[in-house]
Amino acid sequence: MAPEEGAPVHEVGASRPSAPDDQHELRNPGYEIFIAALSILSIANIVLALVFTDPALDSVLNAMNAVLSVILFLDFLVRLRTATSRSEYFFRHFGWADLLASLPLPQFKVLRLFRLARVYRLLRAYGVRNIGRSLLRERAGSALLSLLFIAILVLEFGSLWMLRLEATSADRNITTASDAIWYVIVTISTVGYGDQYPVTTAGRVLGTVIIVLGVAIFGTLTGYLANLFLSPTTSHPPAEGDGGSSSAAHAARDQRLTQLARAGELRDSGVISQAEFEDLKAEILAG
Predict the structure, then answer these.
(1) Distance (Å, whole) CA 266 – CA 268
(2) Which of 17-26, 104-113, 216-225 has the lowest mean pLDDT?
(3) Is 28 exposed, middle or buried (0-12, 13-18, 19+ CB in 10 A)?
(4) Residues 6+ apart with CB under 8 A from 38
(5) DSSP string of the chain, one letter each residue
(6) How far is residue 40's CA from residue 114's CA, in Å, rounded to a whole number?
(7) What local confidence, expressed as pLDDT, does residue 108 receive?
(8) Which residue, among 64, 34, 36, has the nearest Cα to 158 in the 3D structure?
(9) N or C, which terminus of the chain has less Cβ within 10 Å?
(10) What is the mean pLDDT of the chain?
């Protein structure tokens, strides 16, 4: 039987997850890439902590590492809760390393390399073509995760850079890590209280860049949330006559195609079996 239009299909020769465990363990590829990027950033912070000798810069790194630790700990809890076998995930798939690496302790941060190794294994098993198709299907979610990662980068490196630039002025009022982080947060969120502000020319240029990035990030985030809340409830009444009937038919067809695509994603990710997919497909087409 030829595949239905709109349902996700695998091209001949495309790589697919090699084992059911990989299929079930794999989250959305965009999410896996996001976690990998956070792991790389946390490992890079270890190197930066060795390079920087300024206590204020070290405090910024410690604060950001605390934020990353919270995100990675939540990721561990999600993987543990959704694992087919929790003991197998914890012992055979290095769940214990995920737990230790999520703790805000310097001696355990190197264990985040295990996260990178697992993400690489999962994405390699899933296949480059499948990753590309998944990212295209989930454009909104992938864009949201990308914006979140960019916001984390701006918060960390904006704070570090602002402290470094303002350190050259005797009249500076951004002197501590909390000053810098607070300034970047209120600037990137376009609030701008004005209690902390740069006084050097270089600091003001950096502040301008942060403002522009903040407008872009929060503007895109606002559009995403608006689309998320409005799309499910948006409906168009059918027009009178044949045009209305045709519109209703097209709407019903599009709905079935969307349902088939979702069912295909559940099958590809290992949530449902092929037999369950076929039953669900027959039910959708019958409806």
Answers:
(1) 6
(2) 17-26
(3) middle
(4) 68, 71, 72, 149, 152
(5) -PPPTTS----TT----SSHHHHHH---HHHHHHHHHHHHHHHHHHHHHHH---HHHHHHHHHHHHHHHHHHHHHHHHHHHH-SSHHHHHHTS-HHHHHHHTSS-GGGGGGHHHHHHHHHHHHHHH-HHHHHHHHHHTHHHHHHHHHHHHHHHHHHHHHHHHHHHHTT-TT-S--SHHHHHHHHHHHHTT---SSS---SHHHHHHHHHHHHHHHHHHHHHHHHHHHHHHGGG---PPPSSHHHHHHHHHHHHHHHHHHHHHHHHHHHTTSS-HHHHHHHHHHHHH-
(6) 11
(7) 76
(8) 64
(9) N
(10) 78
Q: Please state, in angstroms and rounded to a whole number, the distance separating the CA atoms of residues 185 and 213.
A: 12
The residues near 109 (Cβ < 8 Å, ≥ 6 apart) are: 42, 43, 45, 46, 65, 101
The pTM assigned to this predicted structure is: 0.65
- Helix 29-51 crosses helix 55-82 at what angle (to 10 degrees)? 150
| Burial (CB count <10 Å: 0-12, 13-18, 19+), residue 52 | middle
Amino acid, res. 78: V
Those residues whose C-beta lies under 8 Å from the C-beta of residue 47, and which sit 6 or more positions away, are none
Write out the two tokens for 285: 């087409």
pLDDT tens by residue, 1-18: 444 444 444 443 444 444
Residue position matching structure tokens 């960390």: 156
pLDDT digits (tens, 9 = 90+) for 239-274: 445 454 556 666 677 777 777 777 777 777 766 778
Structure tokens at 32: 């896996």
Write out the two tokens for 4.
């239905």
Give first-to-last CA distance, the chain, whole Å: 19
What's the pLDDT score for residue 235? 47
